[in-house]
Every structure is written in C-alpha cells, then in structure tokens.
Amino acid sequence: MNDSYTTTFTVPNTAAEVTDAITDPRAWWMADLTGATRQVGDEFSFEVPGVHYSKLRVTDLVPGELVVWEVVEGKVMFVADQDEWTGTRIRFEISPADGGTTVRFTHVGLRPADECYDACSGAWNLYAGASLRDLLVTGTGQPSSNPDEVTFRENARSDD
C-alpha cells in the first residue's frame, strides 16, 4: 500500500461526521453517481462519457474508523491500459486527532508507475484532498461530473 496514492488531512469534525460525509460522495466527488453508497454491499457508478467509467462496491464500513470501496469495473479511456482502476480499492482511514479527526485517503493500487497516475492523483488531490475537506469544514464540497472542470479549477487555483 506504500506505493499507492495517499493524502491525509485533519478536520475539526467528529469521526461520525467524517464517516457521514465520506459515504455521501455526491456531495464531494461526483454529483451524478447512481446507486447506493452507505452500507457494505452497496454499489454505485458514474460515467464521464469518453473519459472514465467506474462501478464501485462498499466492501468495508466501520463508522468512525474505516470506509473501503472496491472498483469492480473501471475504464479510464485516456490511457492504454483502460482497466488500471479495476480491482483497486479506495480506502478512508478515520482516526481521532487533537480537536478533531484525521482522514487518511489511499487509492490502493493507483501507483506512480501507472499511466493515469498524474491525472488521477491530481483529481484525487482536488476531490479527496480539497472537496471532501471543504465539505467537512464549510458544509459545501465541490463535486463534479465534468473532468474539464478539474483542469479549470486547478488552473484557477494556481493563478491565485
């Protein structure tokens, strides 16, 4: 797991609030998800036509401690091995911290050697590292269904 993409942040929220936010990815990741996201066995998917499709299953859910999603089907259309995401796991480890809760997000199996790593890790920086954190701290995340918006927002942030 050490060579997989990881980001960590701490928020002033309770572990229960963090779990609730993570299990509502429409509020911070992709607004156009279909399916259920809150219980073990739930499956959900999203598609950005011509760019990315993923179907995920909730495999682990320990409120206040851990949320894991397995990518059961994934197509990343802008790389040669379009199945790079299939079989990977998206893992949220939740732990108490002084005055709040720490979230360690790891996309297990998304490795620097993967062709989509730069683009995918950049998107995770935005969604898991910023949008999820913003949802928790301010009550508003920045979910998207348009990958061009990621590039636009990253460019806008770098212009500040």
TrEMBL record:
What family is reported? Belongs to the AHA1 family.
Q: Which Pfam families match?
A: AHSA1
Q: What is this protein called?
A: SRPBCC domain-containing protein
Ranges for domain Activator of Hsp90 ATPase homologue 1/2-like C-terminal = 16-136
Q: Which InterPro entries match?
A: ASHA1/2-like_C, START-like_dom_sf
Native organism taxonomy: Bacteria, Bacillati, Actinomycetota, Actinomycetes, Pseudonocardiales
Q: Where is the composition biased (Basic and acidic residues)?
A: 150-160
Gene3D superfamilies, alphabetically? Answer: 3.30.530.20
- Region feature (Disordered): 140-160
